[in-house]
Amino acid sequence: MRTLITNGTIVNADGSTTADVLIDGETIAVIGADLARAGLTADETIDATGRYVIPGAIDVHTHMELPFGGTFAKDTFETGTRAAAFGGTTTIVDFAVQGKGQSLRQGLDAWHAKAEGNAVADYGFHMIMSDVNDATLAEMDGLVAEGVPDFKLFTAYPGVFYSDDGAIFRAMQRTTRNGGLIMIHAENGMAIDVVAEQTVAAGTTDPIGHGLARKAVFEGEATSRVIRLAEAAGSPVYIVHLSAREALDEVRAARDRGTKAFAETCPQYLFLSLDDLGNGFEGAKYVCSPPLRTKDNWDELWAGLIRDDLQLVATDHCPFDFEGQKDLGRGDFRKVPNGLPGVEDRVDLLHDGGVVAGRITRERWVEIISSAPARLFGMAPHKGSVAVGADADLVIYDPNRRRTISAAAHHMDVDYSCYEGREVQGASDVVFSRGSVIVRDGAFTGRKGHGRFLKRAPADYARMA
Ligand code: URP
Ligand code: ZN
Ligand code: ZN
Mind listing the pLDDT tens digit for each residue in 78-129? Predict the structure, then answer.
């Protein structure tokens, strides 16, 4: 199958140009002016005049079917990748989980079983390590070789995913030898548990207590600590879902002194705030960790994205229904499952709040949603750019179309939207995954099982600023 996309504005991280794109099979075969006149033929031609042609977006932080708080994140690999595709995201990297007492292999096999034959677009895995010991440290090398080169450890959630400093340091040391990357959920979980207990004892049991107990200073402290551990180990480190100025200051200071510290933020920290947690139990819809912060953090995070102290935006997509899941925490905010839906809305929220609002260029937008994730997580040059030879993961994007975000219209398998009623400018019209159209004008045209596991190479962090 050959598809010719004519007259679109190709937007890559390093510049934009108006040209045609010829897709042959699964890859981009030719980019140039007036390809039909040059004699190139195709089975289908799509006129993209007035629209962008961008690389399929890549979300490197999702949790399909994550077990959490006595329940499971609702989206499966089928529903989650399908929803992602509607929003222009053609690749996800999900977190496989090593449960306590399990091997990494058991956790990884379980995630392969969830995804294989179900995903509608390509996917990779990071590995959550809940149990760092001699055996699991040794297993890390094998996972790197198998294309799962990143490991998430937590200074949060004592008794669940928590690792102490020694465990984190040992894992970091291991990556200096095997080339992998340690990703950290950086909040001081021990201190948070103390304050959370005091908050409940003082009578605050509604979700606002979640935001009050998980103080920004606890995120700043943990971020500083793990960066120092990485410096001592001589390893790079990646901070996931960074939410607050206190943590960003630590990443910026580390980068200024030459440390290979990288970080992502998420749309919820750019567009939502502590106020959303405050509406009685409705606030449970906004319970995630780190929690939503005060609005004065928004400009700080945008500045971090502009200056590249934050390299990318991922979603931390982890959806729980309000009815039947979030309400496990009625009467005690500590029991609300942590996580928000978002995989479908990231591209448009960032276009609207970033490009349309004049905060970032359209090229930086493409960089933070696609090119930087591809580069940092070993998917370039196949993913993350519109280039000859790359996978034809492409989006024909209308930068002027407006839509209103709503649970009634979204495709994520969850009964509410954090952005209900918000109008955004910019929307994905046609979405290609390796040359196949999987979404066209609001209809799903893809296939369950089309998505393939991506064996990712460790990135060359030493060469990354
Ligand atoms: O609240 C969140 N972030 N839930 C998902 C698990 C995690 O910590 O990333
Ligand atoms: Zn986390
Ligand atoms: Zn997460």
Answer: 999 999 999 999 999 999 999 999 999 999 999 999 999 999 999 999 999 9
The percent of residues above 90 in pLDDT, for the chain, comes to 98
**Torsion sign (Cα): 315, 318, 319, 325:** negative
What is the rounded CA–CA span in Å between residue 94 and residue 315? Answer: 11
Atom number, ligand 1, closest to the C-alpha of residue 289 = 1
E-assigned strand segments in 181-331: 181-185, 237-239, 261-265, 312-313
Which ligand is in closest contact with the Cα of 61?
Answer: 3
Neighbours of ion ligand 3 (CB under 5 A): 316
- 44-47 and 2-12 strand pairing: parallel
pLDDT at 381 over 90: yes
The packing angle between helices 134-145 and 165-178, to 10°, is: 40
Q: In testing the pocket of ligand 1, which one of 63, 264, 269 has its CB within 8 Å of the most ligand atoms?
A: 63
To 10 degrees, what angle do helices 216-233 and 245-256 make?
Answer: 20
Q: Is 301 helix (H, G, I), strand (E, B) or coil?
A: helix
Q: What is the pLDDT of residues 266-288, one digit of tens each?
A: 999 999 999 999 999 999 999 99
Query: 460 falls in which pLDDT band (50, 70, 90)?
Result: confident
Residue 185 in contact with ligand 1 by CB distance below 6 A: yes
- Atom 7 of ligand 1, nearest CA residue: 289
- pTM equals 0.98
What DSSP element (H or E) covers 107? Answer: helix 104-115
Q: Classify burial at 389, counting beta carbons within 10 Å of its beta carbon; exposed 0-12, middle 13-18, buried 19 or more.
A: exposed
DSSP state at residue 283: G
Is the C-beta atom of 315 inside 6 A of ligand 1?
A: no
Q: From ligand 3's centre to the CA of 335, what distance in Å?
A: 17
Q: Which residue has the higher pLDDT, 460 or 266?
A: 266
Cβ of 311 less than 6 Å from ligand 1: no
DSSP string, 211-243: HHHS-HHHHHHHHHHHHHHHHHHT--EEE-S--
C-alpha of residue 267 to centroid of ligand 1, in Å: 14
pLDDT band for 465, please (50, 70, 90 cuts).
low
